[in-house]
Amino acid sequence: MTDQPTAQLAAPSSPTPPAAVFSKAAVVASCVGFVLIGALQALYGPGIPGFREEFGLSPSAAGLGLSAHFVGGVAGVLLFDRLYGRVGNRQILGSSYLLMAVGAGGFALASDWSLALAAALLAGLGFGGIDYGLNQLFAIGFGHRSTAMLNILNAHFGIGAILGPALIGAVGAEHYPAVFLSFALANLPLLLCLRGVRNDAPVPAGSDTRGDPVLRRSLGSVLAVFVGLYVLHVGIEAGVGGWEPTHLEAVGYGAGVAATATSVYWLMMTVGRFLVAPLALRFSAQAIITVSCAGMTVCLLAASVPALAPYAYAGVGLFIAPIFPTGLPWLNRAAPRARRAGALVIAASMAGGVAAGPALGKAIEWSGVRAVPLLLCAVSALCLAATLWLIRSTRAH
């Protein structure tokens, strides 16, 4: 590493694309698409009792449904990143919606668990394509409004994540096939709105860095830290969602209060993204993410105090909300020629969600459940340190 701030010779301000990437109808359809992928991801957990009854599964075997979905999701991100720029945007998004519809429908109708897992993998493949494709296009398709639009888009993911389990709870886990099939069919009308998506791939302007090995190494460091930031913050997101109820019960709260507090945490993540959208028009992505990481760290520290814990976890949800969508436009400005950067951080975010469970579980075995907020606070402090390093390393001269 050199002492000079890195990646700046390739960091112009985000350009406004020469033609609109989305029509108004396509923007609405994209938000609906994110509701659907949020709901689909959230259906597997509450559906576990139904899976176990239908196929005679152990709890660990039933949990493989979500694992297969995430494996497919990572594969979908990497596959459609390869196709981005070579195949039209409409074809990428259309095939992703179809894959998710076929996979979710196949999961609903599967006659044995191995077929259900294959269908979950297929649905995850489409999920990854939609997640990558729309995040990538929103990150570069709205000029200076991209950060605000990305927060709105990802807020709809949260709406789906709240809606999916609510539907399973309303109809009963034994009727999970009807819910999965309904969401599969809901993908199909979105295909009609793809005509409003610009088919060629807009590319952020930036100087060519292929001939400058020093700058390539600098960009490599920036990308590595961005990936680390995404892995860590999604690990916190999944860690709080998975362990908050256990921690609250361990410090004296009832099961009902713990479950409600966890629901509020997820709700605050959705609210936070809607709230930050207008702020993103006035403040830089760097400032928003710095405040988010600092606030998240303080809230996790406060969660170690039993009397404050439920409210502090809600604060974590509010502060963590903007990090994922706000970081993507910043990444595109910091590394405009690194075409695969968006795919790397989106895939890393999925990997962070998968790895958080076992990693945090091992740490809790060593330190005890009461240490959950302090363990996550340490990870959050690393997120803040990574953000400050990125600000210094991507600061324009």
Biggest sheet, in brief?
Answer: none
Mean pLDDT equals 85
Helix content: over 70%
Compute the gyration radius: what is it? 21 Å
Which overall shape is indicated by the principal axes computed on the Cα atoms?
Answer: globular
Counting H and I runs of at least 4 residues, what is the number of helices? 15
Show unreliable segments: 1-18, 205-215
N-to-C terminal Cα separation, in Å?
Answer: 18 Å
State which percent range the strand residues make up: under 5%
Question: In terms of structural class, how would the helical and strand content be classed?
Answer: mainly alpha
Q: Count the beta strands.
A: 0
Q: What sequence of helices (H) and strands (E) makes up the elements?
A: HHHHHHHHHHHHHHH
